[in-house]
């Protein structure tokens, strides 16, 4: 696999080596030792999967008391995936990175603890899979408004996104 550093050093774009032939393709989507050697020693304890329609925006979410490292993959369709640095002591606090992940490009995004995460669905539908390093803890889940002007995320959105009630009521980003 190839690991690329994004505009925020701790967020990594992973490009797996894909073996294709007339039957289809094969690639390793997760290999613990290689991941530890090339990115970070992480133990994932939970896998999540979501199916979303075109125009859906999920996020920006994180867990305060039970922070999670996440490895994001797309099994079907395409998304614009975003990580926002919410670590107050960080020099990149309030900065974001976004990458297009798809079933076609097989790219993955590693988002470490201390980042809010969200994505926007570009295809008719998308199935997103994400590995998490801690269990879901609803009491500590937090959200930031996807369209907060202090973040100025350049979402590739045409028209109003489909939001959950929780995301529509998310709090603004806290500027230092």
From TrEMBL:
| Reaction it catalyzes | dTDP-4-dehydro-6-deoxy-alpha-D-glucose = dTDP-4-dehydro-beta-L-rhamnose
Annotated keywords: Isomerase
UniProt-listed InterPro entries: RmlC-like, RmlC-like_jellyroll, RmlC_Cupin_sf
Its annotated pathway? Carbohydrate biosynthesis; dTDP-L-rhamnose biosynthesis
Coiled-coil residues: none
User: What Enzyme Commission number(s) appear in the record?
Assistant: 5.1.3.13
CDD domains registered for this protein in UniProt: cupin_RmlC
A GO term for molecular function: dTDP-4-dehydrorhamnose 3,5-epimerase activity
Quaternary form? Homodimer.
Role: Catalyzes the epimerization of the C3' and C5'positions of dTDP-6-deoxy-D-xylo-4-hexulose, forming dTDP-6-deoxy-L-lyxo-4-hexulose.
Report the sequence similarity comment from the record. Belongs to the dTDP-4-dehydrorhamnose 3,5-epimerase family.
Protein's name in the database: dTDP-4-dehydrorhamnose 3,5-epimerase
The source organism is Shewanella litorisediminis
Higher taxonomy: Bacteria, Pseudomonadati, Pseudomonadota, Gammaproteobacteria, Alteromonadales
Q: Which gene encodes it?
A: rfbC
């Amino acid at each position: 696999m190839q690991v690329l550093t994004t505009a925020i050093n701790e967020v990594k774009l992973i490009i797996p080596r894909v073996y294709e032939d007339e039957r289809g393709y094969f690639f390793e989507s997760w290999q613990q030792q290689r991941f530890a050697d090339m990115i970070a020693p992480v133990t994932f304890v939970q896998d999540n999967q979501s199916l979303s329609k075109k125009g859906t925006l999920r996020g920006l979410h994180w867990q305060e008391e039970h922070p999670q490292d996440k490895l994001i993959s797309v099994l079907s369709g395409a998304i614009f995936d975003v990580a926002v640095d919410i670590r107050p002591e960080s020099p990149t606090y309030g900065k974001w990175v976004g990458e297009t992940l798809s079933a076609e490009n097989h790219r993955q995004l590693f988002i470490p603890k201390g980042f809010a995460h969200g994505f926007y669905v570009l295809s008719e539908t998308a199935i997103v899979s994400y590995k998490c390093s801690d269990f879901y803890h609803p009491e500590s889940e937090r959200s930031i408004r996807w369209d907060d002007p202090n973040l100025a995320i350049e979402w590739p959105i045409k028209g109003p996104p489909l939001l959950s009630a929780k995301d529509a009521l998310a709090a603004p980003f806290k500027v230092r």
